[in-house]
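Quick start: what a row looks like.
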Amino acid sequence: MRLAHESGTTHVPVTVWNNQDGFGKPVGAYLVQVLRQLGYRATVRTVSSEQFFDAASNSSRKIQIGFDGWGADFPTASNFFRPVLSCRSFNQNPASTINLAEFCDPHADELADQAQAAQQTDPAAARKLWASIDRIVTDQAPWVPVFTLSTTVFVSARVGNCQVSPYYYGPLLDQIWVR
């Protein structure tokens, strides 16, 4: 709370745009509660997905806080950075961007190019570059993770090698064996 008050921003009204579809309603209500506890004058605006994305892509209408999610088709660093946080993902077509934060850091993009080039020949160097990009983006906080989906699978003692897909949030049935 001290940091919020020291920031000098608690007098500014904050509107949390809430997508009425899916998990948006309870998460939005929770975030408004947390913001109020921190001293902000927070309210919630619940809209349809269409209204949310129309407002997000309209440069004259800014969403202060809203909820969106991202799951890469293949869990690599480049699939989490390039489509949603690179300058290219915003500048190519701002009207249909998935870079809803309108985040662009040319230095991070330059490092991403270097990391991508190093991936095949020097994976260790590529990992260090992606870690640097992660720190740059985390420090600027264009997106703030609110929660991460996870899956719990209950199985019999007769089941072995039960693995859960990091992308599809379910068990990999072709990997399971049963005694």
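That is the whole record. The beta strands are 13-19, 41-47, 65-66, 159-160, 177-178. The chain is about 40% helix and 10% strand.
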